[in-house]
Input
Amino acid sequence: MEIKRQELGDKEIIRLIGEIDGSNVDSFEAVMTEASQKCSELEVDLEKLEYVSSAGLRVFLITEKQMKQDGKKMIIKNVGEEIMDIFTVTGFVKLLNIER
Amino acid sequence: METVETRKRGMGIRTKTIIMFSAVVLSITIITILAVRRYLIYGMETDFGTTTEQIAAGVSANIDTSALKRVESQAVEVYSSIPEDKRFESSYWGTDEWYEYLSYFDPITKTEDYRILMDYMKRSLDALDVEDVYLGTYFKDPDTGEMKYMYLVDPVEGEYKCPIGVFEMYIELPDGFLAHPEIGLDTYVTRTDEYGWLMTATTAVVDRNGEVCGFIGVDMSMNAIMARINSFIRTIVILIIMIAALFGVAYVMVINRMLIRPINELSKAAADFVNDSEKQEGSVFARLDIRSKDEIGNLFSSMKQMEDDIGEYISNITGLTSEKEKLNAEMKIAWSIQSSILPSDFEEFSQKNHLETFALMTPAKQVGGDFYDYFNIDDTHVGLVIADVSGKGIPASLFMAVSKTALQLRALSGGDAKTVLSDVNTWLCDNNDSEQFVTALFGILDLKTGVMQYSNAGHEYPVIISGDHVSLIQGDNDPPLAAIPFCAFENKEITLSDGDILVLYTDGIPEAKNAAGERFGMERISASLKGYGNVEARARRLQDDVVKFTGDVDIFDDITLLCVRFSEKA
Output
């Protein structure tokens, strides 16, 4: 997995590339936690994300809940078909702000 | 670990210097001894050479040259008359053929000339302090042309007497010697077993006309002188050996002080370190008093450092091992607790409800976050649960135990599927500080009609095997349990026909990955489930196929399956 970060003032864009699973979820969680604290709007680009396990989904959930609580916003963008399937099966489509 | 500072390598250089120095001193000594000996012998040769030459000259001055001439020519004549195969040189000394050869010369010894010469030689020998003084001649062998020396008159009595006729091969005379006999012949020193050290000087005997008519040989013993030289050399050698031994002892003592004593101390300390490491930690080497600034000093520092490091490692490892063992034991207990809360009375449950049931759960770690459950809600309804707690290991397994208990308790108190999940969700959200969530499918199967009402909180879609047909029942899933409070869940329905098998599973199966990075996927699940076999055979086949598929790659997620075959007889 590769994480690319881009800061645009108060907004941060995170691009996820590859697969997120139990083997790399810790670094993913660290990045997401830091980003969610720094910026007021977080845009997560999943165009090049191929897979996310339940451990990865948990990070999305924690970030979403934390930012909502802080009055901030996380937007998920460019979700591919495979990731969309995962979000659908797990019911995450109803939890996250997904822009198609 | 700290790097031990490398100090001067003094000992190596010192040892090399001493060895080089010793080698040089030894070579010089040996060369000196040989030179001294050579010089002494040379000086002696010169002195004695002069003396023996003077003696030879003195004896030759008064000899009856005409008698010598006659004896010489007779002897050469006799020699020439003897057949070649009867001539035996002095190396045949004492043999019968040698005596036979000498007997040819007997007539000469009876002549007056021989008697006069022998008389004169005997008197000369008596008057001189020499071993022997004798007459001989150089002649050319008439048959082979070789130069030979033949004894003519030897006054010595006893076994070393060379009778007339004794001959031996000889060096050639210098060119023009016979014309100018005054140039003289070299004296030489020989050492033989019979005579010891001998100096031999040979002088030509010349008559009034300046013609060479024979040779006088003088043998002078040098045994006494040589003995003196040799004893002198011996003394020097003994002295040198003693000095060398003294140096050796001194060197050994220095080495001992520099090397052996510290090494012994170090090895003793090493033994103590092994024996006493538990009693007195990290002090065995530190107690030593070694202050060398050389390799030993380096070694000592390294050992001290090693002792500290090992002490540290040991305490670390001891802590680690005991903690790891403890953790392992606890994980085993946790797994046995976990597996005991998962039902396994498949046969009893199957018979009681006429619903063939089988389930399995293989955790990726020692404890898992997946669970399944089946239970009777009443006589005609059974509750079926498959769930997956996010994460793995102890935290997931604890949350799994809580979730399973909450779900069963809530289900037993009645209500439709969505209400049960909704209530459980609320309850779990209130008690979820660790931000876990649980994907779960909960269904209530009517044993009479085959209709299952279910609600899916973010879990994998159920699969139905109907004859040869395997179908995935997709739908609009709700969020997982414990994700957000006050979440709305929906009821869904599946109808099972007689013989249909419902398969519930966790994502560990479709998402299992092989070395090539491929995932097991729905198509392989369908292929595994198709065909013959009861629910247990099919479930095990699917699990085996997943294990085969992943090969050497570690299975990263729990694998959990719950299968029921509906039958209308109920």
Notes: Chain B has two domains: 12-221, 342-565.
